[in-house]
Amino acid sequence: MTEMIAQRVAFAQTLIELGRENEKIVVLDADLATSTLVDKFAEALPERFFEMGIAEQNMFGVAAGMATLGIIPFCSTFACFTAKRALDQIRVLIAQPKLNVKMIGAYSGILTGKTGKTHQSVEDIAVFRAMPHIVTIAPVDGREVALALRAMVDYQGPIYLRLTRDPCPVIVDDDYVFTIGKALLLRDGSDVTIIGTGEQSQRCLVAAEILAEQNIQAHVLHVPTIKPLDVEAIIAAGVKTGLVVTAEDHSIIGGLGGAVAEVLGEHNPLPIKRVGWPDIFGESGANDDLLDKYGLTPEQVAKAAMELLQRRRR
C-alpha cells in the first residue's frame, strides 16, 4: 500500500527535528498555527515560537530583524498571504538585502480545503520567480518536503517553500538526495515529455500511465526548484522526445510553464503545451471537482500530450 502523508504534516515534524538540532531556528506564525501545524513546534519548543497574530507584514519585518542577528526564522502562513499581503516587506526587507529568512506558503494552489478564491494562491510562483534573490521550491510529496527543509537550513539566503494541504502519496525513493536547483526524473520515455512541479508532478506520473495504456511512453520530469531552474535537465528532457507538456497547480502565466517555455525558446525551440490555471480566479469546491473543472486531472494532462502528438503527426 502506498504511504500517504500530507506535506504540512511532514513540514511540522521535520521542523521540530531541525529545531532540536539547531538552536538558531525559530518559527513565526500569523494566527494559522493549527492549520499549518506549526502549533506542534510551539508545543515542542515553546521558547522559540512567536505568535505574531494577523499581521503578516509585521511578521516578515520581525523575521528580517532576527536574521540580521544570525537567527534562522521560518515564517509560516498561507501562500496567498506570503506572496501578496506581505509582498512589499518581503521585497524591501528580505529580498533586497538577501537575508536568511525562510518563507512558507502553506495551502498553495487550489486544493485548500474549500477556502475559496480568496485563499487559493495560483500566482505565488510567478511572484517569487520575478523577485531577485528568492529561491522557490515546490516539493512533490512529504518526503521531499523533509529533504528540502534540511537543504533550506544549509542555504544562506531567502527561500520560499510552497506546500499543499491534504495527504498525498509518497513517490520519491528512500535514497533520493534533494539538491536546490536540480530536477528529478520520475519516468523515462521516448514519445512525449511531461514536466511538472509540486504535487502536480504526481498527476503527471498518473498521466504517463494512462498514455502507456495507448502504447505512448511519456518522459516525466519533476522540477521541485522553480528558481534556480535546472536548465540543463529541461533542455535534455525536451530533446529526448521533441514535445513538451508542462503541468502545474498554478497560473500558466509566469509559473513553471512560462519558465520552461523561456528555456526552450532560448536554447531549443520545440512544440510545448502548458497545462495549468487559465487567467481566472477559482472557487470553493471539493478537490476532485476543482481539478476536473480547471483541467488539472491526470486525464487532462494525458489529453494535452495526445494533442501534441497528433499535431506532430499532421
Short key terms for the protein model shown above:
Rossmann fold; single chain; alpha/beta; 314 residues; 7-stranded mixed sheet
Detailed description of the structure:
The protein is α/β, with parallel strands linked by helices and 314 residues long. The chain has helices at 7-21, 33-36, 39-44, 56-67, 79-85, 87-95, 124-129, 142-154, 200-212, 231-241, 256-267, 287-293, 298-313, and strands spanning 4-6, 25-29, 49-51, 72-78, 102-106, 135-137, 159-162, 167-169, 184-187, 192-196, 218-222, 225-227, 244-251, 272-277. It folds into 2 domains: 4-169, Rossmann fold (3-Layer(aba) Sandwich); 184-313, Rossmann fold (3-Layer(aba) Sandwich), CATH 3.40.50.920. Strands 3-2-4-5-7-6-12 form a 7-stranded mixed beta sheet, with helices on both faces. A 5-stranded mixed beta sheet has the order 9-11-10-13-14, with helices on both faces. Strands 1-8 form a two-stranded antiparallel sheet. Helix 1 packs parallel to helix 8 (142-154). The termini are far apart.
